[in-house]
Amino acid sequence: MKTVRIATRKSALALWQAEYVKERLEHFHPGLTVELVKMTSKGDRILDAPLAKIGGKGLFVKELENALLEGRADIAVHSMKDVPMSFPDGLGLSTICPRENPLDAFVSNHYSRLDELPEGAVVGTSSLRRQCQLLKLRPDLAIRFLRGNVNTRLAKLDNGEYDAIILAAAGLIRLDMADRIRNCLTTEQCLPAAGQGAVGIEIRTADNVIRQLLAPLHDQDTADRVLAERAMNRRLNGGCQVPIACYSELQGDELFIRGLVGQPDGRVLLEAQTRCHRSEGETAGIQVAEKLLQQGADRILSELMHD
Ligand SMILES: NCc1[nH]cc(CCC(=O)O)c1CC(=O)O
Fold first, then answer.
1. Does the C-beta of 170 come closer than 6 Å to ligand 1?
2. What cofactors does this protein use (predicted)?
């Protein structure tokens, strides 16, 4: 049997995800050879600017996609949160793996919860989605820029640059640092980003051999949820980094989908939700987006584009 080559970024979290896919493939297909092709993306090289200013989240995946298109790799493993809404011709998502904890984590060396932070405390995050929801709850907080991989962010917290930082719980759990999570923000405090906590696999759409090999790694529950979340994001044109949250849960065969668009200062937060059968998530996700647009989401989002 042929060798499967996995394109991955070199950050600890990206490598964990690629190793996970390699381990699962080898588990389901004994005798299969799986190799990692490690690459550095523009998003990893430029760490001193907000993502939105240097080209958005697509920066993390473009180099991996080029490797697929040029035949240097067969599959690309991504955090679903970082996967753009559309794909180059000939590429597409084949597989969505079981979701890890989807919530945002409150991480601090001195405080155990958001509401314990003193007046004016400094909180690190460069996500407008987190910023607007934190400021809504705590307008007194000083939100400060924080980018870099998980270890870099934790080092900056430990240096004393922040009273607390907010990170995806999934990244900390996967890197065996769950002990850094003081508590997870509830979905009422901070609604997660579309796809947060899920790993997705992109392939050349015509490659049916690879598609077959990956089939046992797919988790339909996660896929139904994440596709609904992404449909909402796509309708809002969540292309570059934007203050948009979308999260869905399965309750039996029913999807409960919630979306949010916020003004970065937290003074306006628009919210919408819907329920639908799990097979209707994409249509329902679009409906949630349209409810947000009716409330004025487009005004908030287009003001950001012109900043
Ligand atoms: N934007 C970077 C990124 N992409 C995926 C994760 C975490 C894990 C995940 O959502 O799967 C992170 C780090 C973070 O937001 O703290």
1. yes
2. dipyrromethane
Note the pLDDT tens digit of each residue in 162-211.
999 999 999 999 999 999 999 999 999 999 999 999 999 999 999 999 99
Note the pLDDT tens digit of each residue in 262-295.
999 999 999 999 999 999 999 999 999 999 999 9
Contact 47, 147 (CB under 8 A): yes
Selection from 195, 165, 190 nearest residue 93 by Cα: 195
Q: Catalytic: which of 82, 104, 163, 224?
A: 82
Residue 140 catalytic? no
Closest alpha carbon to 52 in 198, 195, 243, 209: 243
Residue 304 tokens read as 């950001």
Task: Check if 79 has its Cβ closer than 6 Å to any atom of ligand 1.
Answer: yes
Residue, of 156 and 240, whose pLDDT is higher:
156
Is the distance from the beta carbon of residue 95 to the nearest atom of ligand 1 less than 6 Å? no
- Cβ neighbors of 299 (< 8 A, separation 6 or more) are none
Cα-Cα end-to-end distance for the chain: 52
Residues in the chain: 307
Q: Which two tokens stand for residue 11?
A: 């950050």
228 touches ligand 1 (CB under 6 Å): no
Residue 158: predicted pLDDT: 98
Q: What is the ipTM of this complex?
A: 0.93
